[in-house]
Amino acid sequence: MNKKVSVKNPFCSGDYVVYPAHGVGKVQDITKQKIAGSELELIVVNFDKDKMTLRIPMAKAETTGLRRISEAGTMADALNTLKGKARVKKVMWSRRAQEYENKINSGSPVAIAEVIRDLYRSENLAEQSYSERQIYEQALDRLANEYAVFENISSEAATKKLLDILAK
Fold it and tell me: Could you tell me which of 22, 15, 9, 4 has the C-alpha nearest to residue 138?
């Protein structure tokens, strides 16, 4: 695996990164490509789970929200958020669903943990609607994938750890 780093590029090939709209991916390569007559430096990010590859221009990496895997402090904050009491606003579901989607797409582990905490239902509580379940599973999947890379464990083990925290 060749490591390429430019002065203004904080990413190396082989690094795990988070792209807010898609979750955790792996930097496959840093490459130059001629597009519309001008040469662009691109970060090639591969998302194995979705079988997708993104090419992000270096100049746009920061504005798209591309970032490294969270630090220990941020991950601890996210896990503490899961331990908190659910805060469900008394507004229409459509508005809440939009807020939850925005939090998930922000890419922030703490915001995603808030969504999981608010939508979590233990076995003895009322059933979730289909759309609640979809948003909950999307948020859980995003946080579990980042936590798995952070802890260097499998996605399934990370999901189990998050669910154990929620169940307490």
Answer: 22
